[in-house]
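Can't attach files on this board, so I'm pasting raw text. These are the components:
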Amino acid sequence: AIQLTQSPSSLSASIGDRVNITCRASQDIRTDLAWFHQKAGMAPKLLISDASTLQSGVPSRFTGSGSGTDFTLTISSLQPEDFATYYCQQFDNFPLTFGAGTKVEIK
Amino acid sequence: QVQLVESGGGVVQPGGSLRLSCAASGFAFGYYAMHWVRQPPGKGLEWVAFMRFDGSEKFYADSVKGRFTISRDNSKNTLYLQMNSLKTEDTAVYYCAKDHHWYFDLWGRGTLVTVSS
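---
Top answer:
Structure tokens for the assembled complex are below.
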């Protein structure tokens, strides 16, 4: 199974900060990567597919980049509603796998 | 309204069985593949099972293979997960999710399964 290593596992940031979350795959997955965020007690929500395609309705402060084994989710200016846990997921092949998550907390 | 609503969770003893349902509405359920994804309390997400729109193909995580069965009734817009030989490590919130080329573009709110004696 393809392993996804997310870093950091948690971070503290202030409103307006630029935040980067990385996801490294154990093998080449082209651009078959999605990003989700999950607020406490709620279901995950899709933010980005195909490594860099922003989903409809998702604010443009979210950007995805990368291909192959190294990927990054960037939040250009952190907003109060962005405090959540972020997960990457590979869909290159089965079994589908997720990163362990990055918890973004308020500094 | 486009939504998925899971039901059927509860408390069950180790070795027991449970059947989860996921009712879909607001989209053409019969045209989409579907998944089950779970999340143990306080932990990350784990993909569990996949089924093509017509049931012709199914995949399972190794952790549930041989114990869980995914199925669907397109006439009822409903997805199922039959869980047998349950273990304490199966305790989790179970989400159904709509497929979009093997990632998940719509999630339900989840149903909690607790396996405990």
